[in-house]
């Protein structure tokens, strides 16, 4: 089965209804005996069946809660944009066990590449573990389906990204695929602002921004963690754009890459 490279409230359907479950509450012993946590995230666009989503939800709830993991995880079936989007606070003492567990899910998500926070924390970023199912892993107005996401953009490592942006300077077509308020908080030099409130609206604006762009010219794009670009990148390639490039791991990965030399950061 072909899978894309990685990097849950109700399921609105007239045919299916996910069973309702309460959020997992982590036993107090994990909150009081674990001294520090590591922020970790990953996503994978994957062709999950409805039945498999139900199975995975139960498995994640059981295994991650037993390991003291806190966070928010979204699952969606392949009817539209399917896969998993995961943000976690992982006890340092349980790191290897958490990674070993996700290795057992490689048949679903492929080889997982984690984006880790810039620094470990004394307290978790989340108060509980919530695993939610959605109809669409990424909300878009267009009817984009998993099978349309196979032609992925070129993934640039933070080091490659930094080098190319530095070389091109003003001579670059660089899209910030986040919301306008996120852009205001900080963005890459020479990035084009998406003046929208939601990513859903951003896809429509994207059509306007690239309308007169030659199909053989480079298009660079970035977002917070990468998942939005993994959706709109194929969308642009399906429109005929040949050279679409994205920041692998998003701003989160770039921040970790540049943290030792903040004075050289291209994110302002």
Automatic annotation (TrEMBL):
Residues 168-259 form the Rhodanese domain. Transmembrane segments: none annotated. Signal peptide: none annotated. PANTHER family: TRNA URIDINE(34) HYDROXYLASE, UPF0176 PROTEIN YCEA. This is Rhodanese domain-containing protein. It comes from Rhizopus stolonifer.
